[in-house]
Amino acid sequence: MTTPAPETPAPFHLPKDAPILVAGARGMVGSALVRRLQAGGYTQVLAPGRTELDLMDTAAVQAYLAQHRPAYIFIAAAKVGGIHANNTYRAEFLHTNLTIQNNLIHGAHLAGVQRLMFLGSSCIYPKMAPQPIKEEYLLTGPLEPTNEPYAIAKIAGIKMCEAYNAQYGRQYISVMPTNLYGPNDNYDLNNSHVLPALIRKAHEAKLRGDAQYVVWGSGTPRREFLYVDDLADACVFLMERGYDGPLLNIGTGEDVTIRELAETVMKVVGFEGQIVFDASKPDGTPRKLLDVSRLAGLGWVARTPLQDGVASAYAAFLDKQGAQRPTSRLGG
Questions:
Q1: Contact in structure between 245 and 287 (CB atoms under 8 Å)
Q2: pLDDT band with cut points at 50, 70 and 90 for residue 135
Q3: What is the distance between the alpha carbons of residues 133 and 138, in angstroms, rounded to a whole number?
Q4: HSE value, Cβ hemisphere, 13 Å, CA-based, for 254
Q5: Residues with catalytic function
Q6: CA 91: distance to chain centroid?
Q7: Interval 29-63: pLDDT, tens
Q8: Residues 249 and 292: beta-carbon distance below 8 Å
Q9: Kind of pairing, strands 256-257 and 225-227?
């Protein structure tokens, strides 16, 4: 039996009234995508919450996609967390992320959705990958053990998109954001990523009048941080241009040490104490800086400086807490 040749995709143009699904719209990344799409004049942004659409329910996802027939899907839904959460809830990080992305990618195909963007994570790359990390370094070495289950799930999502493209002629692309932060972040001290955890620790230390605040690890690892609204802008940029190429990194192309990050947070929050590093806690990957030259070649670069982004994130944190903003040491 002869397998039918993949259908040739039509030239891409997305009208402003086309339905666009943002899966994970209540999270930090998803909510930023919704803001960016609405600001761009898109009038049918589908942003279902968990009560409206359970992404773990295969039948529910397929029924939703069959009913709404989105012209484009952003997969921003995922179970995420910092080193502690990744290393503690290894089974949940693997099972939940695989289930969500399998339901959405396969469901999109069944519903005839031609275009989709899968958002991964820079942890997909080998722990000791050369720096800066190029897209072609994927699967060239062992992963960082503390977040291996999450990384494996994301790698599976990338390969799933590639497989549907090759077999069925779909245009399902994958983008790899660097470390993200911004409004609607998770500030739980046990399960959050490093930057929101530092913001909360510095804020609470300031309120208590502490002389110091404790930062996990040695302070020497280097990390890159991208403001989440910049990520959303990059994603919509690629969508509007009909990008249909291989895996693509999204980042700033610049990194800082965890010590420098903690000092920036202190400056924004206005905490006058001292940083103490807890070397008994894991550092994770020594350095993680993405090579963003492929994206820059397409005409997009990040716009938000780290200190400005941290200030916006801190303001959003205070709004969420219903707290009065303390006077910081920032000028202006």
A1: no
A2: very high
A3: 9
A4: 12
A5: 150
A6: 20
A7: 999 999 999 999 999 999 999 999 999 999 999 99
A8: yes
A9: unpaired
Using the structure block, give the residue that is written with the tokens 């959405």. 104
As a whole number of angstroms, the distance between CA 309 and CA 28 comes to: 14
Residue written as token pair 């008994």: 280
Burial of 83 (0-12, 13-18, 19+ CB in 10 A): buried
Going by C-alpha positions, the residue among 170, 166, 169, 141 that lies closest to residue 155 is: 141
Residue 291 in tokens: 């090579």
Higher pLDDT, 192 or 129: 129
Residues 139-178: tens digit of each pLDDT? 999 998 988 999 999 999 999 999 999 999 999 999 999 9
pLDDT digits (tens, 9 = 90+) for 254-270: 999 999 999 999 999 99
- Given a contact cutoff of 8 angstroms between Cβ atoms, the answer to whether 218 and 282 are in contact is no
User: What's the rounded Cα separation, in Å, for the pair 268 and 185?
Assistant: 17
Measured between alpha carbons, how far is 108 from 64 in angstroms, rounded to an integer? 10
Q: Under a CB-based contact definition with an 8 Å cutoff, are residues 114 and 168 in contact?
A: no
The pTM (predicted TM-score) of the whole model is 0.90
Cα separation, 282 vs 203, whole angstroms: 23
Residue 57 has which token pair? 């329910």
State the Cα angle at 33 between 165 and 294, rounded to 5°. Answer: 55
Query: In degrees rounded to 5, what are phi and psi of residue 289?
Result: -125, 125
- pLDDT category at 79 given cuts 50, 70, 90 is confident
Among candidates 315, 297, 22, 332, which has minimal Cα distance to 134? 297
